[in-house]
Amino acid sequence: MDDKHRLATESSEAIGLFPGPHLAEGASSLPIVRTQLALALDLVDRLDGVVGVCWTVSGVVMPQAGFSRIVADWIGGGRFPAKSLVRLGEVAPGRLCSSGLGHFIGQEIQLPIGEAQGSGHATDLAWLLIHELVAIGPVDGPITLEIPGRKPIHLEPSADGAVVRVDLS
What we know:
Elements: H1 30-46, E1 52-55, E2 60-63, H2 64-75, H3 82-85, E3 87-92, E4 95-99, H4 102-105, E5 108-112, H5 119-136, E6 143-145, E7 153-157, E8 163-167
Parallel strand pairs: 5-8
Antiparallel strand pairs: 1-2, 3-4, 4-5, 6-7, 7-8
Helix pairs in contact: 1-2
């Protein structure tokens, strides 16, 4: 992260929100995550000087304003707040992979950057796919998603089921 985008954390303190033992087994369920994020949203909006918010599962750190906007949208009925909860990165030349989606569906996604017509398009598509996959759950076999305004998207789990491979051809 360059200096322009680095959060000023040198003199900061942290507060952690985690489900208690009675909710630990359901920590990835959407109602618990939604409640946890609603509480975090309330805290960051009420506390002075909040620099950022970190989702420890994926290591995503967001500035407070971005976190608040994305999470408030989800709580209000919008898209799953993937950018606050899932990290995207290039795992091999030309391959974009998620980190943190597995917390919700037990699988990460991997898609070719070139076939998505550039990394910007690939990340946009990845966010859209994450939203869809959180809604439908794990991919157990080959499926095709029909998303309005897009070509059909073919998904297939890896041999061990840990990764969903995206084919755009």
